[in-house]
Design a protein that fits this description.
The chain is 55% helix and 16% strand. It has 13 helices and 14 strands. The strands form four sheets. The chain has a five-stranded antiparallel sheet. The protein has a five-stranded mixed sheet with strand order 9-11-12-14-13, covered by helices on one side. A two-stranded antiparallel sheet has the order 1-2. A hairpin with a 5-residue loop joins β11 and β12. The chain is rod-shaped.
């Protein structure tokens, strides 16, 4: 009984009962008025016929004897009428009533005048002398003598006996109307209504079932799709969207947790080697002490310092990459001129490139459009790509920094270096964390995280890193920034 279906059904039944009884009441009232109006129309000229047969006045006085004879004759034919003789003001002068229970001394004269004026064409109710406050159908006519108005003949067409019989018949009519037509109509309407409610709430039951399944742990439970524009269909689609969002959030949390576990594993693995080197040389310095020459001490300290720098960079790269992958990196977009970053980065790497005889060339347009990006993150991208280019460019090689405007108003940046190139089979894996190409053969050192960091930073900016290589003589990285 607490379900929406039964609550709607009970409300529907209540509405049907109210409508049914209202219909019965309106029907009975209308029928009663119909019979009253019919009675008045049929007997509208009764009073006129009366005065044609006998004049109720004689020499200006009420002719009781003649009036009584004709009245009793009429009532013998139609016992439902009662006759009253009124003066011009509506006062009752005489009457012929079977039970003599007349309680009024006068009747309202205006309805009588209206009835006479339109000759009974319109339905009019007048006072019932036996029941003060009640109205009755009537017939009336004026009585004149020598062109002088002496009064009115006022005939009520529904006597007390008539009304008693009418009320009893009306009650019987109500019962028949209720139990025959209305009851059948209500039962049929109720059955149809219950079926319609069952059909209309079918989608709601599907929603409830899906919600209960989702609550019980079935995260893939969904409400069947509906092409309807109804509120329940919208509710079902909203639940599906909410469930998809929750499932995506759960997957994201699992991903973050997986990244956290992976970070811990990587940190423990990648930090072990530099820590072991630092620890080994420090122990050597502590144990041998003065037995080690000054040159060896300086060599050991340089190795310790280099391992410390490598350790610091590795930790920084690991945390930065983890924040980028989990979407926790704070990004501050601003309008900037990317050519300034490119010139500064080229100057920073010139000294390092000179140690290998590498020449850095620049083809940077001076009037590049302003782009919207995070200054520090884009600087990190450029430096990582230049650092990668210097490491993998052979001695006496060259590096080209190219920046130009593109059609949509953005800036395209390319960093190209000569060298062995990258095999096509390894291009897809190049941006994975810890992936390095021929690290041992080329003698380069790094964490293998630089390009992975570049990829995620550019994704934050709505851009993608592209790589071009002929696998023999060059490698080129390309990306775009938008205004």
């Amino acid at each position: 009984m607490k379900s929406l279906y039964w609550r709607i059904s009970l409300s529907f039944i209540l509405i049907l009962l109210i409508v049914g009884f209202s219909y019965v009441y309106i029907t009975a009232t209308t029928s009663q008025r119909y019979f009253q109006e019919t009675t008045q129309r049929l007997n509208a000229e009764v009073a006129e016929y009366l005065i044609k047969e006998v004049n109720p006045f004689k020499d200006g006085e009420v002719n009781e004897e003649a009036l009584g004879v004709i009245m009793h004759s009429m009532m013998a034919v139609n016992p439902g009428i009662e006759v009253y003789l009124l003066d011009p003001n509506g006062n009752i002068l005489s009457y012929v009533v079977l039970d003599q229970k007349v309680k009024l001394k006068s009747v309202e004269i205006e309805p009588v005048k209206k009835f006479i004026a339109d000759q009974g064409a319109n339905f009019i109710l007048g006072d019932d002398p036996r029941n003060p406050g009640d109205k009755s159908v009537f017939s009336a006519t004026s009585v004149y003598e020598d062109s002088q108005l002496l009064g009115y003949v006022y005939i009520t067409l529904a006597s007390e006996k008539y009304e008693t019989i009418s009320k009893s018949l009306l009650g019987s009519f109500w019962m028949k109307l209720t139990f025959n037509s209305i009851l059948i109509t209500l039962v049929v309407a109720l059955l149809i209504g219950l079926v319609l409610i069952e059909w209309l709430t079918r989608h709601l039951r599907k929603i409830i079932k899906a919600v209960e399944q989702f609550r019980d742990g079935d995260l893939n439970a969904r409400v069947p799709q509906s092409n309807s524009d109804s509120e329940l269909a919208a509710l079902g689609n909203t639940f599906n969207h909410m469930a998809d969002t929750i499932l995506a959030n759960i997957d994201e949390l699992k991903k973050v947790d997986s990244l956290r576990r992976e970070l811990i594993a990587n940190v423990s693995h990648d930090l072990r080697n530099p820590l072991a080197i630092i620890n080994g040389y420090i122990e050597t310095l502590q144990i041998k002490g003065d037995k080690i020459s000054k040159e060896d001490q300086e060599k050991y300290l340089r190795i310790i310092s280099s391992s410390t720098d490598k350790l610091t960079k590795l930790v920084s790269d690991l945390f930065d990459l983890s924040k980028l992958e989990s979407g926790q990196m704070q990004v501050k977009l601003e309008r900037l001129k990317v050519q300034e970053l490119l010139f500064d980065s080229a100057l920073k790497y010139e000294l390092l490139a000179e140690t290998k005889g590498i020449k850095i060339n620049s083809q940077i347009c001076q009037n590049l459009p302003v782009v919207k990006a995070d200054l520090s993150l884009i600087d990190r991208v450029i430096q990582n790509l230049l650092d990668n280019a210097v490491k993998y460019t052979p001695n006496e090689g060259n590096i080209l920094i190219d920046a130009c405007e593109v059609e949509h108003g953005g800036v395209c940046i390319k960093i190209r270096n000569s060298g062995k190139g990258i095999p096509e089979s390894e291009l897809k894996s190049l941006f994975d964390r810890y992936y390095m190409i021929d690290k041992d053969q080329q003698g380069v050192q790094g964490s293998g995280l630089g390009l992975a960091i570049v990829k995620h930073i550019l994704e934050i900016h709505g851009s993608k890193i592209k790589i071009h290589s002929d696998s023999k003589s060059f490698t080129e990285f390309e990306f775009e920034l938008t205004p």
